[in-house]
Amino acid sequence: MNSRLLGLLAVAVIISLLATLIFYKTTTKLVFEVELESSVQGTAQLFYDVGNGFNENDSARVYLSTIPKKYDFSFELPRHKLRGFRFDPIDRESSITISHARIITPGYLAVSSKVIHSFAPEDFKAGNQIKSILIDGEMVRINTVEEANDPTLIFSLKEPISFKILRYQIVWHLGFIFLQFLLLLTACLFILGFTIKLLRSKFALLYRQVVIFLRINPDRTIIVVAVCSAILSSYPVVFFGKSFVSPDYGGFLLYDRMPTLPGYETTRIEYTNNTDVLAMMVGHFPYSVVQSKALWKDAELPLWNRYNSTGVTLLGQGQSMFGDPFHMIVLAAGGASWAWDVKFVVAKILFAIGIGLFVYVIIQSLPIALLLTISAPFIGFFTFRLNHPAIFSLCYAPWILYMWLRIVGAQSGKASTLWSCGLVLANLFELTSGTAKEAYMLIMSLNICGGLVLMFSSQEIKAKLIKLLKATAAGILFVLITAPIWLTFLTALQSAYTIYNSPHAIQINPSLTIGLFDDIFYRQIMKDESIYCPSANFFVLFGVLWSVACLKHMLQNRTYIAIGLSSLISFALAFGVIPWELIFKIPNLKNVHHLDNTFSVVLIIHLLILAGFGLKRCFDELKTREWKFDWFVTLFFLVMMLSLYFGYTKDIHKSGFFYGYTALIVLAATLLPWIFRWLAQGSHPIIRKMLITLLVVVMVLLHWRHGMHLPMPALLDPYVNNPPLRANLQAKSNAIGFIKSDIDISAQPFRAVGLQGNLAPGYSGALGVEGINGIDALLNPYRRELLRAIPFDCFFGWNWGIIVKEQKLSELKPMCDFFNVKYYLSPHKSRPSELQELHFDGGFDLDVYSSQTVWPRAFFTDKLLLYDSVADLVTTILNGDRKPFAAFQKSDSEQYFELKDLQGDQKSRVVVPASDYKLTTNTTSFTVDAPSKGIVVLTEAYLKDDFVVKLNDKEVPYYRMNHAYKGIIIDAPGKYVVSFSYWPTNFTLSLWMALTGLLLMGSWILFTIYKYRRLKK
């Protein structure tokens, strides 16, 4: 057998051994199997007692459809005996049929499953909220009590269940699995080898052409490699119909169960390790739908979001992404999930290109630039955020530094001017990337870093000052051009309530620094190994540590010094070197709160670049004696980081996967420089091919966990990102269709709310239905005060709204009427519930109820009610006559003497609903017939000085009415057309500033081009 065949066989044996060990782990599981049919959709959950009683950690769950189906509950075999089981067959009122419940060992490849224990129908005992149990042969028919929310069954066990694997079974399983993998891989490798042999001449020609292309076109090469690497990191999305914005990432949207959307069949929820996925699903995705409607239907700027919380600023949230050119992909598609997927993949490509080009420019080594281009899309940050807009903030950020680098290296005034204008665009992309904390801190940090690179450069002082002056001019242009975004945000922030109002500083213990290079270290300090902070990867760690090991040499490089100093600032903020007492004295920084993950994002950019310096030094001295010393120093630093980590976490339990995975990546990072050295020294072609194969294996080990993957074996699955299926996030709902058609027929706008968790806050905007809740960063303070004054517990989230449940509906109903809520969406039942004071409108995919006492959106009244506190107002709403009224707070009445004349007896007040509504994104207009002097109230959120109000086309002042809403005075009887248009304070000024900035930048570019053309002539 020749050496080539031996090499292929050796590779197949190594991979087969690794695959066997991975897949054999899954054989140490039991499966609880049951055939179950439910009359309604919901959640079933199995609890198993291993000595700790029944608890959430020792449980498994599955989501049920109404289609008869066999559901499997899988869980790893506990070390202790199984002492008992509790089965929650549904989490709501239902009729359920159960049969053939048993515990089995699952089959593996050609091995059949084995029954460990079978449950007879008599073993099912009623627990909580079970109305009846009827045994019908092999089937058990169960009915829950009415309005059940936690029905339970207890399984009787005569003795604990234990399971042992005999030694011969282990050997047989291992051998069988290994043999199948070996045969499969050997066949694939030999087919591949035979194909390459047949096409050897063509491959040789192609190889030469590729090498020539690499040498002649380094920039294009980096772009091609970046595209391939980004696509590889997201291959399930690109090739297998998965999605960044799938509802299976968790968080219910329309329905409070899975599947959570009409026409969507999957019931699986991807484990996200407590990653923030709601920000996208009920925040930025609905924002994009609202923005698309504003642009293409209403022909307006997307300034206001009428669908959340009775109206909130949209552009002023600072997160709308309006202004990002790549966001137009999403807006043109109406917010479709496929468009979001395109944007995410494009962002990763831009990130990889930005890192690759920057590294190539500063170190002039294409191989190293390509290695970091490949590595960039495979960093832990992408598993930390999954689908959060912070991905765009990170991915756009390298281009700020790249523009600075091109300014520094510009050889002519024309080039420095054009690159300065490029700096404006790079910062614009970052500002509109969709985050506030990350984007603003990245803009500040990376521009400081770029300025340091310029000032530390070896150019003459005059040249530095000219370029710094141009960069400063670019900064001024950026401030002018982006004024509509940042000025609107800062203005809204001043009057809004946010969870960041109070100073707070969350930082990382410096002993956990190694977690900055792989989040597996962070996750060990968290319950259930949840996500904690973003990270890079161990390939980057290897490069950074090598640069530190050669620090004496590195300090001769001015660019390295500039970037290193900048990174130290971010490190000090993220890892608690700068104490919180000092941070609390710094404006704005004290309100960031999450300094840990915010400045870790900034650090990741720096680390990827610093790694390039370390790799360059390692490559330059591969054949020298100093190389071994630098390797030992690098290894020493790695051991020190590990020692600090394990010393700090010595009392914290760590998972088995952590130890195995850590050993592999430490070994890979330690071995990687030796592979580079052996390849550089030259060797036998066979050995060289084996080294290249080993290099690929090592690079995969260092990067694989941070990319997206299709479902993997149970041992690995919790530690990787498995994007779920793509879905139509705006799927047609018959219940929503009924509400919208009923509103059209009545010609009156109303709001809707979901009962029991249906119609998630924020998601209603994607369906075009106005709601009373919303997950927004900037909240209306008056509305928050109003909600907080409700005298019973119904508040949820970070002050985002109120939960409306059927059990609490009678208490909340007057407040919902006050909020203009007419429609209530309840889970569909075969026998609709009788809800007090609500009319049943029909059973669709959701049951729709309506209120007959709802307040109109706008109305006229001739009497004004004065109240002392918001609690008094809420008491009046809950205990009054349930008819609309206009109320004004006494503390404000002293400023508006014209309102005092309208105060009067509420019992005799006249109320006239408005009509002829016209609603657009930013404007609400209507007609009102006023029988006398009085007040017109609009139940939409009040913001001081941010609305233009017109009465019969004449601008009039408006007032804060009913604590959180708006109103105007009608001086005489008559028919009036009233319009309220949202136009933020200083927005006109900001538009003029933007126009001025654009004209100045355009003039600057044209003048520069004209000047240098004239000089050239």
Architecture overview:
This protein is α+β, with helices and mostly antiparallel strands and 1017 residues long. It is 46% helix and 16% strand. Strands 1, 4, 6, 7, 9 and 10 form a 6-stranded antiparallel sheet that branches. A 5-stranded antiparallel sheet has the order 3-2-5-11-8, with no helix packed on it. A 5-stranded antiparallel sheet has the order 23-20-26-30-29, with no helix packed on it. A hairpin with a 2-residue loop joins strand 18 and strand 19 (846-851). The chain is globular.
Please summarize what this structure is.
The chain is α+β, with helices and mostly antiparallel strands.
Per the principal axes of the C-alpha atoms, what is the gross shape?
Answer: globular
Count of strand segments? 31
Distance between the termini: 71 Å
Low-pLDDT regions: none
How are the elements arranged and paired?
Elements: H1 3-25, E1 29-38, E2 42-49, E3 59-64, E4 69-76, E5 84-88, E6 95-105, E7 114-118, E8 124-126, E9 130-136, E10 139-144, E11 153-155, H2 167-198, H3 200-216, H4 218-233, H5 235-239, H6 278-296, E12 304-305, E13 312-313, H7 327-332, H8 337-363, H9 366-375, H10 381-385, H11 390-396, H12 398-409, H13 413-431, H14 437-456, H15 461-481, H16 483-495, H17 519-523, H18 538-549, H19 551-554, H20 558-574, H21 580-583, H22 595-620, H23 626-648, H24 656-681, H25 685-703, H26 734-746, E14 751-754, H27 764-767, H28 781-788, E15 795-796, E16 801-802, H29 809-818, E17 821-827, E18 838-843, E19 846-851, E20 858-861, E21 864-867, H30 870-879, E22 886-889, H31 890-893, H32 897-900, E23 911-913, E24 915-919, E25 923-930, E26 934-941, E27 947-951, E28 954-955, E29 959-961, E30 965-970, E31 974-982, H33 987-1016
Parallel strand pairs: 14-17, 21-22
Antiparallel strand pairs: 1-4, 1-6, 2-3, 2-5, 5-11, 6-7, 6-10, 8-11, 9-10, 12-13, 15-16, 17-19, 18-19, 20-23, 20-26, 24-25, 25-31, 26-30, 27-28, 27-31, 29-30
Helix pairs in contact: 1-2, 4-8, 4-9, 8-9, 8-11, 8-12, 8-22, 11-13, 12-13, 12-14, 13-15, 13-33, 14-20, 14-22, 15-33, 16-33, 18-22, 18-23, 18-24, 20-22, 24-25, 29-30
